[in-house]
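PROTOCOL LOG
Step 1. Enter all chains and additional molecules of the complex.
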Amino acid sequence: MPRSAPARAPITSPAAATVFTTVLTEGPVSRVDVARRTGLSSAAVTKAARPFIEAGYLEELASEGRTGPGAGRPANPLAIRPDREYFVGVKITGDDLIGVVTDLRADVRASAHHALTSHDTGHVVRALADLVGELLAGPTPDGTSNLRERAYCLGVAVSGDVDRASGVVRYSPFLGWRDVPLASLLEGATGLTVTLENDVKALTVAEQWFGEGVGASSFALVTVGTGIGSALVVDGALVRGAHGVAGEIGHVPVADGGPLCHCGGRGCVEAIASTEAILTRARLITGEPGLTMADAVTRARGGDEPLREVFAAAGHAIGLGLAALVNLFGPERVVVSGEGVATYDLFEDQIRRTFAVQAFGSAARCGLVIRPLPFEEWARGAAAVAIQSLFVAESV
Amino acid sequence: MPRSAPARAPITSPAAATVFTTVLTEGPVSRVDVARRTGLSSAAVTKAARPFIEAGYLEELASEGRTGPGAGRPANPLAIRPDREYFVGVKITGDDLIGVVTDLRADVRASAHHALTSHDTGHVVRALADLVGELLAGPTPDGTSNLRERAYCLGVAVSGDVDRASGVVRYSPFLGWRDVPLASLLEGATGLTVTLENDVKALTVAEQWFGEGVGASSFALVTVGTGIGSALVVDGALVRGAHGVAGEIGHVPVADGGPLCHCGGRGCVEAIASTEAILTRARLITGEPGLTMADAVTRARGGDEPLREVFAAAGHAIGLGLAALVNLFGPERVVVSGEGVATYDLFEDQIRRTFAVQAFGSAARCGLVIRPLPFEEWARGAAAVAIQSLFVAESV
DNA sequence: ATAAATTCTTGACGAAGTTAATTAATCCTG
DNA sequence: CAGGATTAATTAACTTCGTCAAGAATTTAT
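Step 2. Run joint prediction.
Step 3. Record the structure below.
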């Protein structure tokens, strides 16, 4: 090509990163507004925004008629051009790969699945590369180019102990992996820049940048399902834990002398409220060892009191765990998301009630959002991590 | 005065703050060493250090003979001159004022007490100003000057909801105060620059800068006594909580269906392990409504099994709370400090045992330091906050 | 002595962001 | 409808901070 390749996102200084994230996460904003929100001078915003406009990442919206009540030159809001770059996100579970392509705003544009027939590293890497190839095969939505030419980054989410910085899966119980340098393997196989992250943390990043977490300096996300996990954002940064462990709300002890947990502890939230724990208890109570989760849910929804109580007990345990989290951290908001079967409607009431009782003082003012979690969301989280990887420096 | 007044700590740039804190908290270090540890260039360290040396805050130690194994110019380590400036710290309790004077390293040089006969704001302010006057009356230890001329900052620690930034006591149950602008009142009364902080947070700052927290990017401090509280440091910054509440480990629910807590919850750590909760339980078990804490402690130490079990139950509850904290945050270290009567010897074993069982995975690698808490330490915490207030910008 | 190693200092330079002045685009008023 | 008021964006000069590269200082090793 005679013309130089289009410049990638020109994040060259803290101010550039600040301006870009502000426009990215807070919709169209005028330069003065960006300046006001970030504390930068308006001159700095002008300077920082120009390269982004030239590289096609930002655009100036035609002034939208009225500026407001008073007089004055109307603002030309800066807006993101979401189609300037695409990102691939893949979540690896024990059984399959879930992949999505998103735009800069983390809106999903395409998705695909792929069953895993083995946990062998080589197999997974090949399958993942195939999936990525499939996802990027088509043209861009605007038809002017194809996806592959505008996608440079791949985010991968895996449950377990993941070292994002080095791109290594330290330990993944589901896959039976230890110390697999997955990021570099995938960079070789796909040619994309790969960022690896723990799945719950990835989900939290998506929420922090493009969901409920926008504008909150501290918040938490909790996932309820097979396991119960969470991740915390304090002062804009993900809490990672000195030894790589943090956010283990599933193993917060809430019921002294309660059921034994697979972690060796007693009365952990996960020992009471995980899908398996609920099912075990439901079978015990009904005396039907063959009871399925789907049946239990249907009957509970239908008004089966003993079964409803099993779910309520789970909701109570989650509420206690939330109270522990909120009393210790005081986040601005917490998102509780139900994985897999959307049973959250059976928990929600009890979670809120218990939380209201156990949250201390004004910590109770913390906003509680409870909602289902479509499983594609996990892959979207991975893509969000890829988007975030544009910002090499601090995570604003 | 013909000569200009001696310059205060010349913290004019991020680099200056970094260099000064490094030397302050990590003992004598050569300039190259500071550069290596902080990532600054050695030129920057030289430049930043000079004004501190000129103002008398730092000095160059004569090269200490051998530098190490190899050749090369020997290092001239930079060291703090602790006596360059003194700081006053005062802790306000419901009954009295405890005050100390410390040097730059937060070493206590003088201390004094003062009984409070009323909780009236004016009375407390006057009493506190008197106490400060008393503390600063003498000459400096080196005899070259007097304390007052080298003390500019006062730190004040109060339990309850305190807004450090505005210097307002939002709510203090012990004093019965609401929205008292204590910092500005005290600036008027003492002429010193006043920094107000919550007492547990102040203690944590002291630990972060001058104790177990040095070098740890995240750690927690827990105090056990009348109340049970904690404060958390994540990535070098104190967690404040979106609504001003954080670190409320005392109200983490650990025993579902346990004793009712004064906060309205059930099974809170504080409802089981606070001094009052222990005493209530001890009286119930022994059937002696007049039992004192001192007696209970003596008899438990002497081998009284039922009483030992009361303390063990408290230790267990604390251990569960600690596990919750550590599983959620993954701090590098936790300090557990016993307030008032030094009963920690009766808890320690049980705390460690429970913690070991309930801490999840490598979170258990978190270092646990359990030790008594001399009550002057609270005032020292206040002084540490005053020292930290020199660093206007971020708390490194 | 001379060379090698290591620490510290110095001055030129460059990057990033600020302030202040200027230009631009609109509304309001008489 | 001209002129002023008002707000937005840009420009240019300047400040500040910290790096780089070169060299001075001071030791050990040969």
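Step 4. Note key features.
The first strand of chain A starts at residue 58 and ends at 60.
The longest helix of chain A spans residues 305-329.
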